[in-house]
């Protein structure tokens, strides 16, 4: 190991020992009961079987989904995938690939096997992963790479560190000109702008649901604190519109808490309430969608989509391509910094604060449906991945 890499490794071990009691505690939490034992204790997380594959590393569900058009073009390759979150892991297991959780950094020198190429998506910058794989003779590619406007100052403060990290990378495929310039400021080289690979994803529904009478509004990928504002706005809007609201929380562990919140609003305002898991019809005034993988199916029959994750300042927004593809009129918050590049391609979106959702709903009547323009070409990426 190089001196800096050795020092970093030692610090990672010290941090692990300090955090050990917390890690053990979190291992019993439902949200982390699979990912933390796998990542920090290597429980049911063995090494990859072979050493000549294409290894993709993604963080969570959105990036795991974005892999599909690429994997469709690499059918003859030995594919490996690592993830960070359990939702990303669950989706990655749908592919014909060896799937693992990415271990904590101190395990990587012993756990990781040489591969033909390592492709890391978005902003998953792990120093030991990059340096260990480069030392083992694996080419490292950054794909869909981004540095958000909100994060850039933090990166620049440690530019000396990121320069070392990025020196292990063969090529960076950046999402935008702004991202390219931010990587250049960090000392990176060999950067190409390819756009956001999520534009290449096939968007489709998996089931057909009957569109209810009247207007269907879907609150998609909502986070804590957002449902309250949406429900308040919907109650006012419903006084002037024959409409129904389906709420789809981003994280399944919040289903019960969101149901209790919706029940309070239903009781207070004499609205009917149902759970999608018990009744997949959309006849109630309020519907909690307490099931995974249904959002596109619901976008397909919805008139308006209130896209969560952007009414808070700490999430960064969610993918607008799916509701736009199905022609929903999109309302979202102003804190969409992680999805800024995607929103560039979506037209007729209303960006509002949480206390302006009612006004946005009223304005929807005079706005056209949202739409997506532009596609990207994955051919240069595929050629780079498979080259010897």
UniProtKB/TrEMBL annotation:
Active site: 63 (proton acceptor)
InterPro entries: Glycos_transf_N, Glycos_transf_N_sf, Kdotransferase
Pfam families for this protein: Glycos_transf_N (PF04413)
Name of the protein in its database record: 3-deoxy-D-manno-octulosonic acid transferase
Lineage, top ranks: Bacteria, Pseudomonadati, Campylobacterota, Epsilonproteobacteria, Campylobacterales
GO CC annotations on file: plasma membrane
EC number(s) stated in the UniProt entry for this protein: 2.4.99.12
3-deoxy-D-manno-octulosonic-acid transferase N-terminal domain: residues covered: 36-200
Site (Transition state stabilizer): 122, 198
The entry's keywords: Cell membrane, Lipopolysaccharide biosynthesis, Membrane, Transferase, Transmembrane, Transmembrane helix
Main location (coarse class): membrane
Pathway field: Bacterial outer membrane biogenesis; LPS core biosynthesis
Record field: catalytic activity: lipid IVA (E. coli) + CMP-3-deoxy-beta-D-manno-octulosonate = alpha-Kdo-(2->6)-lipid IVA (E. coli) + CMP + H(+)
Molecular function GO terms recorded: Kdo transferase activity
The organism of origin for this protein: Sulfurimonas xiamenensis
Function, in words: Involved in lipopolysaccharide (LPS) biosynthesis. Catalyzes the transfer of 3-deoxy-D-manno-octulosonate (Kdo) residue(s) from CMP-Kdo to lipid IV(A), the tetraacyldisaccharide-1,4'-bisphosphate precursor of lipid A.
Subcellular localization, as worded in the UniProt entry: Cell membrane
TM stretches of this protein: 6-26
Keyword flag Cell membrane: yes
Single biological process term from Gene Ontology: lipid A biosynthetic process
Family: Belongs to the glycosyltransferase group 1 family.
């Amino acid at each position: 190991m190089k001196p800096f890499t050795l020092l970093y490794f030692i610090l990672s071990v010290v941090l692990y020992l300090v955090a050990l009691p917390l890690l053990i505690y979190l291992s019993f939490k439902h949200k982390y009961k699979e990912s933390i034992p796998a990542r920090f204790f290597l429980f049911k997380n063995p090494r990859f079987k072979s050493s000549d594959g294409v290894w993709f590393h993604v963080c969570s569900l959105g990036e795991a989904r974005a892999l599909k058009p690429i994997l469709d073009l690499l059918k003859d390759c030995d594919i490996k995938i690592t993830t960070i979150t359990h939702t990303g892991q669950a989706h990655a297991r749908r592919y014909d690939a060896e799937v693992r959780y990415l271990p904590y950094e101190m395990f990587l020198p012993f756990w990781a096997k040489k591969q033909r190429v390592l492709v890391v998506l978005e902003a998953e910058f792990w120093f030991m992963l990059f340096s260990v794989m480069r030392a083992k003779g694996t080419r490292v590619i950054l794909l869909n790479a981004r540095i958000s406007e909100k994060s850039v100052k933090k990166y620049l403060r440690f530019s000396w560190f990121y320069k070392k990290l990025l020196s292990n990378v063969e090529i960076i495929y950046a999402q935008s000109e702004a991202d390219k310039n931010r990587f250049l400021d960090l000392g990176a080289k060999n950067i190409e702008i390819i756009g956001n690979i999520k534009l290449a994803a096939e968007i489709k529904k998996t089931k057909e649901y009957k569109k209810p009478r009247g207007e269907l509004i879907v609150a998609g990928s909502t986070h804590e604190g957002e449902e309250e504002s949406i429900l308040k706005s919907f109650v006012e809007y419903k006084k002037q519109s024959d409409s129904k609201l389906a709420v789809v929380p981003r994280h399944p562990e919040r289903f019960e808490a969101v149901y209790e919140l919706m029940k309070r609003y239903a009781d207070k305002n004499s609205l009917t309430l149902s759970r999608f898991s018990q009744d997949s019809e959309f006849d109630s005034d309020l519907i909690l969608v307490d099931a995974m993988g249904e959002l596109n199916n619901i976008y397909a029959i919805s008139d308006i989509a209130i896209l969560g994750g952007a009414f808070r300042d700490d999430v960064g927004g969610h993918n607008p391509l799916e509701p736009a593809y199905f022609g929903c009129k999109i309302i979202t918050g102003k804190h969409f910094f992680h999805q800024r590049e995607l929103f560039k391609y979506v037209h007729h979106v209303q960006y509002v604060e949480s206390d302006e959702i009612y006004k946005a709903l009223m304005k929807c009547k005079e706005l056209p449906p949202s739409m997506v323009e532009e596609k990207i070409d994955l051919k240069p990426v595929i050629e780079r991945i498979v080259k010897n």
